[in-house]
Amino acid sequence: MEPALRPFIEPQSPPLQSSGFIGWLRASFFSSWFNTLVTLALLWVIYQVGGFVINWGIINANWVGDSAKSCPNIDGACWAFITERWRLFVYGLYPKELYWRVNVFYLLGALTIIAFVFSFGPITRKLRLTMFIGFPVAAYIFLVGGVFDLKHISPENFGGLLLTLVIATVGIFGSIPLGLILALGRTSDLKVISKVCTYFIEFWRGVPHIAVIVMFVALLPIFIPDGNKIDIVVRAFIAFAAFNSAYMAEVFRGGLQSIPSGQFEASKAIGLSYWKMMGYIILPQAIRNSVPALVNTCISIFKETTIVLLIGFSDFLGIIQLSLEDPKWLGPPHIFSSAYVFAAIIYFTFTYGMSKYSLRLENRSNVAQ
Q1: Are 343 and 317 in contact (CB under 8 A)?
Q2: CA torsion, ordered 84, 349, 209, 250, to nearest 10 deg
């Protein structure tokens, strides 16, 4: 006797509470009574903080004006201070008739970022290498001049965001290759090179950053013949690159130590020379493993540019402080708070962009693995 066939049941869609947007909300924020309580508490905090920010930064803000009298509402931000002095913040002390050269620098910087963020097919690697090498050279030509009939501008005329970006660029682009060389030297089998690189790294890591800046700015002319001919800002650039190269070296050394010893042994077994082994096998893996710490160090370099305030340079934060000392803008405290909030937004924008790019590199590396 054949068993009775069960009637065919049409598939049913899952309950609304476990799928779609409502299901996502329930799983992400209201999966338990404790998570529900935390979600409601955070929503209340976001509502309070968000309401204050909107009222202070937008609704009650003062947007246009040329003095502290333009910001009578102390319950709102004084963005008039920013809109009236934005050129000074962006271009610093650079001659006004040559602003176009600074704009070219910003444009080249943006193109360099685009080259590293996006992929352009087979030419991607060559394009990135070209921009990595060519951007500093082109930036020097346009900003300093003295060649191709471009008027020479002393780096002492830099200031504002321009000086901050230039110092950060020199610090990053200068410390990465130097740090990589120091890391290779410290891990070298040749004891003389290893010891020299080790002492160099430990010396710069053991000295406060401000002491390094002062030493290069004030004492470099004493130890180097004709040192006075080196521009004071250039000395600060050298100090940033030398100081941060020690930290970059430790970042790369950590990446080198993360490579299994079998990789070295296999490279030697197939007859690769030291430089071919490093160039084709070891360094690509080590640099990939060093990405989080590398970007973290770059972020630190960018934020540490404010230290030049202590030796009288007017970087982005320094220009803001000097502008606040203008008698026209002496007034209620909300002018000062608005200026420093604006500075915080600018610094956060750049550092957050670096961190997102770091995450992108990490995800790309994980996919490659």
Answers
A1: yes
A2: -160
Inter-residue contact 175 to 301 (CB < 8 Å): yes
Q: HSE of 349 in the Cβ direction (CA atoms, 13 Å)?
A: 8
End-to-end CA distance of the chain: 59
Looking at residue 104, its pLDDT comes to 92
Q: Is residue 238 part of a domain?
A: yes
Q: Is residue 237 part of a domain?
A: yes
Q: Is residue 101 part of a domain?
A: no
- pTM reported for the whole predicted model: 0.81
For the chain, residues with pLDDT lower than 70 are 1-20, 224-230, 364-369
Q: Alpha-carbon distance 163 to 209, whole Å? A: 18
C-alpha to C-alpha distance for 260 and 282, rounded to whole angstroms: 10
Distance, in Å, from the CA atom of 207 to the CA atom of 299, rounded to the nearest integer, reads 20
- Residue 220 domain flag: yes
Contacts 24+ apart (CB under 8 A), 258-264: 258/285, 258/286, 258/289, 259/285, 259/286, 259/289
pLDDT in tens, 122-168: 888 888 888 888 888 888 889 888 888 888 888 778 888 988 988 88
AA identity, residue 12: Q
- 188: region left, alpha or beta (phi > 0 left; psi from -120 to 50 alpha): beta
